[in-house]
Amino acid sequence: MEVLTISHLSSAISNSQEYSHMSFEESDALSRHIMNFFGFSDRIIDNVLQPEDRDTFYMLEDSGLMETAREETTLYDGREWRIHYWTIKISEIFTRSVKSDDDSDDSSNDSVYEDIPDDIWSR
């Protein structure tokens, strides 16, 4: 199994439609921030996150690069205890980190405004 690197995550973020507006420096900084939490693991406990970090994780979950999970256990006194985790989707990151030939088509990068004639903007 291949090891997930900052470069893989940065490429996956850049190749995600939701983050296509980000520059290389922004996606690289975000990747470094995320990888600092995970290290060599593919999941972390939610309790270590600050609210702004959790918001970032929710955004990555919405784009399909992360997911949440939880475990429940019964304590000695009978109460239920829930542990919430964040899991990084390594296979999805590897898939997105490699751009397919279909994505490299120039028409996919065109803006919708490029098809509109220039004279339409004049009053």
Globally, the shape reads elongated
Domains, number:
1
How large is the count of helical segments? 4
The profile of the biggest β sheet is: 3 strands, antiparallel
Strand order of the largest sheet: 1-3-2
The end-to-end distance, rounded to whole angstroms, is 60 Å
Low-confidence stretches: none
Strand content: 15-25%
What is the H-and-E element order?
HHEHEEH
Tell me the number of strands. 3
Which whole number gives the mean pLDDT? 84
Structural class: alpha+beta
Instruction: Please give the share of residues in helix.
Output: 25-40%
What does the radius of gyration come to? Answer: 19 Å
Molecular structure report:
With 123 residues, the protein is an alpha+beta fold. Helix content is 37%, strand content 17%. It contains 4 helices and 3 strands, in the order ααβαββα. α1 crosses α2. Residues 97-123 are annotated as: Disordered.
Record keyword descriptors for this entry:
three-stranded antiparallel beta sheet, single chain, 4 helices, 123 residues
Break the fold down into its secondary structure elements and pairings.
Layout: H1 6-15, H2 24-38, E1 43-45, H3 51-62, E2 66-74, E3 80-88, H4 90-97
Antiparallel strand pairs: 1-3, 2-3
Outline:
InterPro entries: DUF6015 (IPR046057). Residues 97-123 are annotated as: Disordered. By secondary structure, the chain is of the alpha+beta class.
